[in-house]
Amino acid sequence: MESEHLAWQIENRIQPGAPEKKITGTWNTILSMFFPPTQGYMSNFNRTRADGPLDVFIEHIETHAPQPRPFKFLYVQCTASGNEDIDEVWEEKLLILSDQLRQFNSKRVFGAIAVGRAVKFYEWNSEMGKAVSLEQNPSPLFIDRHCQTVARHLEYIRNHHF
Predict the structure, then answer these.
(1) Which end of the chain is more exposed for a tag (fewer CB within 10 A), N or C?
(2) Distance of alpha carbon 74 from alpha carbon 104, whole angstroms
(3) Which residues contact 18 (CB under 8 A, 6 or more apart)?
(4) Is the pLDDT of residue 73 over 90?
């Protein structure tokens, strides 16, 4: 994730107390780097409740299928900064993320929870009926300190979502 513009966004937009819309905007930028529209990807936004957070999801258009259609495969739930160290926040967000991933009809479905600069990645396991962490370590990754690991996860998702 080498980009001075992205580094600026992370440093200046995701500060302590940053609202969800800034987290969502920064994640939309990050996702566009790994899932570019020129390769058939589209980012979209979702609000689970009228007063709820604005989350972002990625769709891929199957242009070579008999009937081209977009399919959702990645959902990123964004949350305001300042709660990165609160386990209950992560647990609550994981329940909400699981409800979202359960509704996707793609072969492989991935999700992420972004709390400020912290993020955790998951893959939906339909047999177990739950989201399973892509990391061995349950601690969150920080996009400003663990950018190579975050990039590896996004590359993995890009290469394995179909």
Answers:
(1) C
(2) 9
(3) 80, 81, 82, 116
(4) yes
pLDDT at residue 9 in the model? 79
Helix 20-34 × helix 4-13 angle, to 10°: 160
For 4-160, CATH number out of 3.30.1370, 1.20.58, 3.40.50, 3.90.1570 equals: 3.90.1570
Q: Positive or negative, the Cα torsion across 60, 45, 20, 124?
A: negative
The alpha-helical segments, DSSP class H, found in the chain are 4-13, 20-34, 87-102, 147-160
- The answer to whether 31 and 73 are in contact (CB under 8 A) is no
**Strand pairing category for 110-115 and 141-142:** unpaired
Q: Enumerate residues 6+ apart whose C-beta is below 8 A from 7.
A: 144
Q: pLDDT, tens digit, for every residue of 109-148? A: 999 999 999 999 999 999 999 999 999 888 999 998 998 8
CB count in 10 Å sphere of residue 141? 22
pTM of the model: 0.90
Domains of the chain: which residue ranges?
4-160
Task: Flag whether pLDDT at 61 surpasses 70.
Answer: yes
C-alpha distances in Å from residue 88, one per residue of 23, 34, 121: 19, 30, 17
